[in-house]
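Known limitations

Files may contain more than one protein. Parsers should not assume a single record per file. Below, a two-record file is shown to illustrate correct handling: read the sequence, read the token line, then continue until end of file.
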Amino acid sequence: MVEKKNIVERYNLPPEVKFCKKCTISNQRPRISFDEEGVCSACRFAEYKNTKIDWNEREKELIELCKKYRRNDGSHDVVVPSSGGKDSAFTAHQLKYKYGMNPLTVTWAPHLYTDIGFKNLQSLSHVGGVDNVLFTPNGKVHRKLTKLSFEIIGDPFQPFIYGQVNVPLQIAVTHKIPLVMYGENSEAEYGGNMKNAFSPTRNYKDDITNFQFSGLNPEDLASHGISSKDMHAYLKPPVEELDKNKTEIHMLGYYMKWTPQENYYYAVENTGLTANPERSEGTYSKYASLDDKTDGFHYYLAFIKFGIGRAIQDSAHEIRDGHLTREEGVRLVQKYDGEFPQKYFKVFLEYCDITEEFFWEVIDSWRSPHLWEKVNGEWKLKHQIS
């Protein structure tokens, strides 16, 4: 029997569900805040980006940063964590061809590559002209971690996140590259902890190990029969090594206005990015998070745990960017949010070595009674956006 989880306590969620007055996100997203006007912190940050920031001045800061770290001997001078998707492709290509840097993109392999995902990664180098290192972890260990993360954390994607965050730091230290450039500050852009929203950097001494969305570190998962050697790839380098390397983690979204849809158009034109021929399950979009056959289960678990699915996350950002009205976003959420990722369901079960019965036991263990109720034998969300 799978243990029932207390979602409200674990994630410090408010018991009363409220939706943002400007976008489609709810107050059930961990760490998001709503003001007295019922507007979420991500929308307020978007307003700040649109009205208060002098982007010309921010670009000057970026130019000075590049001057500080640029190397003229042909060696790499910035590490860009990259899936091969639109955002990291935009980041790497801009740094190389607009700002004269020589980026090394570092990719932690997905659990199970989609055809389109692998094609886009190859296109980043062959069309985009950017160097890439692909790190593929021990498959046996990764499968076990994925199964444990699915059950214990409620997010099978968490082992990938550990690797994609920490392997680029390992590469930076190994190759003596101080500058690491991420794309957006996801906490500020999507709603979360705003402490770094107005800073260009992230502090590896506390942030990298603080995987707030899960509440568990890789070391905790190691207690389930996985050796410390097996876990090495998932862990950040020792702080002493990062300090010795004079590592700095920067966010490109601080220096230029971050717009995912515009990043997509740029990547199509400059790095050969290809969208899916059909929309992704659970949403209306075709161009985001395409790399991994397990992606849909990451978003589906968020829908189960927080009532926030893929269409909510996509539409909320596009409303803030002015690409959708709230009314349009609401209709898209009502139509697509929470759709089950059926396409790769059997593949996911086989990958995690679990039965369909166990899968649904885990899913139901993450349903909170303040969000879910059974109506005529079917689970329904108590609170629907309108």
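...continuing to the second record:
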Amino acid sequence: MELPEVVSRSEWLVARKKFLQEEKEFTKRRDELNANRRRLPMVQVEQDYVFTGPDGSIRLVDLFQGRLQLVVYHFMFQPEWDAGCPNCSGFADDIGHLNGLTDRATTFAAISRAPYEKIAAFKQRMGWTFPWYSSAGTTFNYDFGVTLDDSVVPFEYNYRTKREWDQLSGSEFSQTEQPFDLHGMSCFLRTDDAVHHTYSTYGRGCDSLGFSGNVIDLTALGRQEPWEQPSGRTTGLGAPAGDPSITHRETEEHCH
């Protein structure tokens, strides 16, 4: 194992301060990127998708649970599997209490193609509590680019066609038997009963999303704090960080 160089405290401090400038530049660029994401236009979702959950059928607009925004994790769980994707399961293990999202008018849910009975059994086995629905019998997964099947919709993943993927070195998509699922995350904004698609990310775009702040950064409304750009998306839409109305529930599990 190759370890970092051992230096004196003063030498370390020089290196750390130099690196701090890179971190500050990255933070500034990330804030600009998040602001540009919030400036993206949105598309109205015309199809009235109906999913299956613990209480039976449920429409896409009802997944919001009355809130303004919905963040969907496209969890890889194909109908013939008895368990979800191990990598997606690793992501799910990082999901704790969702009040960091719900306090900002945002609901989180996972959606998979597997039948709900399999989802419910696997979810119970893993000890997860986040909402998770089945899209079986709908084209939701196909329409949002996480189930690839040319017989249903033209092949596209992460905004590249099959031909574009085949031109990339190391791509195995052309050899993979269809249909097959991949992971991603999609964001939606509700105005009354109209649902709008604001953003989707795939592949490594999900790498750093194991925290509420990073997830909320993907949405059109953002963290809903006064310093964010574009302005005008805070009043009445959610509580800013530090607001006394936010109740961060602490449980015994959080203390161990």
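Parsers that stop after the first record will miss the second one. For reference, the second record is described as follows. Residues 56 and 116 are 9 Å apart (CA to CA).
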